[in-house]
Amino acid sequence: MLSLSMLQPKCPTWQLCYMFCSCVATQARLRSLFPPEYMQPIDEGLPSYLQWAFACVRSRALQLGPQAFGMVPFVDIANHAADPNSDIRGVQATAGSNSSSDSQAKQQQAYVELIALKDVMAGQEVTISYSGLAGYTNQRFMAQYGFVPSQGNMADRLELSVPDSLQGATLRMSYLEETLGSSLILQAAQGKNPYIFAALKSLPITADDAQPTAATASAASAPGADSIASEAISVDSSSADSDNVARGMGLTATKQEKELATALLQQIEAEVETCSTSLREDEELLQQLQQLAAAAAADEAAGTDVRLQAAVRYRVERKRLLQACKVLLALVIRD
């Protein structure tokens, strides 16, 4: 039987120092703006009233215009969905007619509407998008709302830098398309493989004039492409150093592309090395935490701290994206 005490040693650490440092910086900024007594915790393990209020405003205020935000009761309890069935709309105030006989003489007050984007069945949850069409990175989701989307986020990104010695260097999209197969690229663009899409958007890639060879059309059915597509789609804890890495069917990586891919891969591996658990271990840990929460809910007992689940899920999603980037870069290096 699992217990929280058995899982505790692996839970508290973020393992991703940039996220922790960002949180610390925010708290330091609050301390610099307000008297010390405002930052006293409500109780042990809890935030101060100021921190609680700050989190409420940051996570529940709705953007109603370019420079307009508002706290809207009832609407603010709607959960986020990548494909929401509803949306919010701010309606600005309008001036009424000067004629006293006009039925709309009074000024109409501004208000907020919750509107359906598609048919919503009785009993179905009403959802909205917290991030809009542009989307948010997982770092922003976690910092602002305390959760990250599961099973990938097309708007997530890795912060990778091109070395000074390779400034201006990029990876050719035509090469990656031929190596991966056009069908996998299309799946990523359609949102069917958000990890590969986010990985591609994280890398310095440019379109070029090279035309894919005839082999590209059959790339998705080639044995090598099947293995890399399966690995990239699942993005599990299998190593990117597998012998199943596919190679280009006609185009080849240039020396500069290989050097760039190697430099970027080193950055990714450096981040992975800072983590005390592997992707597989985090996936198993997350599953165990979810099982504990489900069991507690069934018994109407106190469950695990939801913050632990959120932290581990963030780690899982981050490591899956890192793994997807490793797969893509390994293709270039091993060509």
Structural summary, described in words:
This protein has about 325 residues and is mostly helical. Helix content is about 45%, strand content about 10%. The protein contains eleven helices and eight strands. It has helices at about 5, 15-35, 50-60, 140-145, 175-180, 180-190, 195-200, 225-235, 255-275, 280-300, 305-335, and strands at about 60-65, 70, 80, 85-90, 110-115, 125-130, 170, 205. The chain is globular, with a radius of gyration of 24 Å. The chain starts with a helix and ends with a helix. Residues about 1-10, about 210-235 and about 235-250 have low confidence and may be disordered.
Keywords:
single chain, 335 residues, mainly alpha, two-stranded parallel ribbon
Helix-strand layout with pairing:
Elements lengths: L3 H4 L9 H17 L15 H12 L1 E4 L2 E3 L8 E2 L5 E6 L19 E6 L10 E2 L9 H8 L25 E2 H8 L1 H8 L4 H9 L2 E2 L16 H12 L20 H19 L5 H20 L7 H28 L2
Parallel strand pairs: 3-6, 7-8
Antiparallel strand pairs: 1-2, 4-5
Helix pairs in contact: 7-11, 8-11, 9-11, 10-11
Strand content: 5-15%
- The N- and C-terminal alpha carbons lie at a distance of 48 Å
In this structure, how is the largest beta sheet organized?
2 strands, antiparallel
Q: Can you tell me the overall shape? A: globular
H-E string: HHHEEEEEEHEHHHEHHHH
User: On the 0-100 scale, what is the average pLDDT?
Assistant: 80
Low-confidence stretches: 1-12, 212-233, 235-249
Major sheet: order of its strands? 1-2
The structural class is mainly alpha
Tally the helices. 11
Our Rg estimate from Cα atoms comes to 24 Å
